[in-house]
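User: Predict the structure for this protein chain, please.
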Amino acid sequence: MARATLGEPGTASYRIGELAAKVGMTERTIRYYEELGLLDSVKRLDGGTRVYTDDDVRRLKFIRKLKVLGLSLQEMGELEGIYQTERSNRTVLPRLIELLDAHLATVDGRISELHALRDEIRSYREHVATRLIGTDR
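Assistant: Here is the predicted structure, written as structure tokens:
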């Protein structure tokens, strides 16, 4: 891995604890993302301490956003593989749109199921309430 020194001119650098606090993730999660290849090769100080940059902050925030949108780590790895091969977002973005469309369809299906469940619960509640009124007489 590349070596770096803290305070290189023009770049902010963070140790893993600082980075974790900045992006709202655990240190363990960040290390896991490194192992999966979702985070570029991390620079290290001469003593082996990991050092992260603002690019890493942006990348981790993007990963967090993709997770919120429903993408799996495997899908993110696929996108990263495409980017590493082509070195261009022009090849990554169409695939990202496909993945988002698939997740949107899944969410739409779940919403439909929940609407149907809500209607069924309301109907059964009315049925039970009607029976309750009938037993009060």
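The CA atoms of residues 105 and 111 lie 10 Å apart.
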